[in-house]
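Budget justification, computational time. The allocation requested in the original proposal was used primarily to generate structure tokens for proteins on the priority list. As evidence of use, we reproduce two of the resulting records. The first is shown immediately below.
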Amino acid sequence: MLKYSSPAKVNLVLEILERRPDGYHELKSIVQTIGLYDTLYFEPAADVSLDCTQPVLNTPDNLMLRAARLLKEYSGYSGGAKIHLEKHIPWGAGLGGGSSNAATTLLALSRLWGLNLSTSEVTALAAKLGSDVPFFIHGGTALVEGRGERVTPLRLLKPLWLVLLVPPFTGIPGKTRRLYSLIRPDHYTKGEFVSRALESLQKHGEIAPSLMFNIFDSLALHAFPEIEHYWRALKEEAGPGNVHLAGSGPTLFTATEGRHQAERLATRLSEKGFEAFATPTVPAPEPQAP
């Protein structure tokens, strides 16, 4: 049996550059794995099956099962695997849990089945499953471009402690589509936010909170008016700290000065009835090779 930890992520910077001829949007983002994990178990079996501690995710369309079927089709492997998912990352919350699980499935089954695939092969398969999946083949800190299929690992970010606030309306049907429908040409940027963050990362090994940016921040209140209460609560507790959506939300996050401040802030939010986590940024998970 193989045991893998499957991390969540946040977009420290997320820009939309233009609408592509294929109808998708051209992205430029700095993405970072964080210390919030699902745990996945894999063991050989005649067929592919999935059992999840979150019953609503036990469906034939689960991205992990799609990943396994895609890998079988690509490799011609005749066997299967029994997969068990212990779900800890809030699902449908903008933290990339499903994409992370799918990427981890590709990596784990490549190893379990002895396929000896290259990282580039697995990344290409990941791109067929979703925009966030290729990033999780690499993890750590990375520049993500295109639809998400172009991933460039970056210099390791100095450990940064974040506080996440998860509103109680995750798993919104069509959430990402709703946000993208609000994008207008005047929301497009030219990569300047990513460029400034990359310069800071190269010079100082960190991205200052003032350099973090998410294009969807300006659209969140239009897409999800109910998020305002949670945004205000995190802003009030975080003080002068900047608050951003994690990916396409509705999870919110703010950077702090360190572990103690993050844990105090998360505790205060929890005492007020919010679902909050203090979590550090983390490097690429092990094992990484397929």
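The second record produced under the same allocation is shown here.
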Amino acid sequence: MTGVADAMIVAGGAGTRLRPLTDTTPKPLLAFCGEPFLAGVLRRLVPVGVERVWLVVGADPSPFTVLDPVAAELGLELIAVPEPAPLDTAGGVRSVIDRCPGSVLVLNGDVLTDLDLAEVVQHHDAARADATLVLTRVEDTSAFGVCVLDGTRVTGFVEKPAPGTLPGQDTVNAGTYVLAPGVLDRFEVGRLSFEREVFPTLVAEGARVEGLVSDAVWADLGTPERYLDGHRKALRGELAWPAGPGAEPDVDGVRRGAHVEVHEDAEVVGPVLLCDGARVAARARVGPDVVVGARAVIGPDAAVRDTVLGAEVVVGADAQVTACATGPGARIAVGIAVEGPALIADGAVVDATHPAAAHAGDAPS
């Protein structure tokens, strides 16, 4: 029987381009469709047979306890692996992989994908591989390290080749791997990179390194524009993402959590996700491509589209909000217009003096 019991999620990224949201919440825990992003990742692991999930995080693992209820619901054992000092992409994995008796599935904790993980594990097992890398095709190879394939076997790596200089080779590392038992034993515990050290060394030593090319959605959520675009893809059903709150959309593409209140004179145009306790007042216009966080309130005559509102956010009457993502508890004042892409900090008050209102179209640095 194929399957893996252990998965490791590399989740220590700082997320500097998503500040101020990441000033208070680690990037992999930012809200995605109404729950921490990694909650959706955990839901994707269960069908593969995963029983234990190792979270390779930064120096402080305490924020990740927010995932404990989801892990308990799914029957997963969740183990945090703190890194007091950064150990690069593979160091944290190397530090604990000896505690895993079988093959290990390794994922990047900030990549949005609907990759078929069961297919990856099955390919790895069938090939009797030492390591399997999921690969995605790119049009412009000059921005990436390209994996050179002979059939499905990885035979080398070329860093940022100019387009057309490697005919037939256009695949790059998509940040999901399966590692056979003992494959990392040759590397010392400490700072270690999958991309620069582990995989090139394995190939050079003749290990069986497989490359599985996938056409699945693969998106980095690391900028305001990409964070919003990832939500669009999920809301529109352009990728298969596990449903959290408000699981079933109605005929208009609107998903409602528990205790949602929408005034009869409001207009909600899907796709929209209204999380538990969300309220939409009279004559408000919501959607398309909007997430309204738990217990958030959209006031009378306000208009919100292409936006992700955190929990307990209040959008004042007559406010106009477009292409914006907020942390929990933010307040957008009466009559204020926000034209993004813009990120609003947890608890911030957006009035006429706030940069998001004063400089429409500018994203925070």
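A brief technical remark on that second record: The helical segments are 21-24, 37-45, 68-74, 88-96, 117-127, 194-204, 224-235, 355-358.
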